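REQUEST FORM: STRUCTURE PREDICTION
Request ID: SP-0412
Submitted by: Lab K.M.
Chain count: 1
Length (residues): 210
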Amino acid sequence: MQNDLIEARLRRDTTLSAFLDQARPRYEDTEPDVAPLRTALAADQDRNPARKRGVRGQLTALLQRLSRALTAHAKSTANPELAARVPRRLSDLSRLSETSFAEQARLLLDLGQPHAKDLARRHYTAAHHTQAESLLSDFQTQRTEGRLADTSGSTGREALERLIKANARLVADLEDYFALYKEDEPDLWNEFRAAAKVVHRGGGSGGEKL
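STATUS: Completed
RESULT:
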């Protein structure tokens, strides 16, 4: 990745992070969806070495939401088999190894899928599931990259490029949420688009997408 593109994307991430913080009162209805993405993007601006822990924490919260929804659904439908398969002590997730945590997350997410419509009425929506899948993928990617770094070494530039790619995924997810305002709040949508655009030195966007 060329140096000017790296710099342009880092500037974009900083600009977008500032916009998300400043505009929070204007997207209160989507705050539960945007908040984890905003937090992750802000952490990246600080070069937070604990980002993996942040992703795990966000995913744990969603798994707890899913567990509560599954438990309520199992009781409502008198389904003891489902109830028995729902973990009762998700607080124990914090004690699991990274491998065991990822496996437990996968099992729980798969368990919820056949009941998606019923879970949506119990405060675990399709948006929550999409976010959880994205966080699990991000967590697993970071685990893989960490192992590669441990065995083969990693330069600062490689780490920076990984960060940029991870942030690109965050921006794409944010775009999906802000697109909801396209017709009803066009000013908010356009301001988001402007903040999320990669602008090169001299003011040109270089035809880059978000």
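NOTES: Residues 3-195 form one domain.
Reviewed by: T.R.
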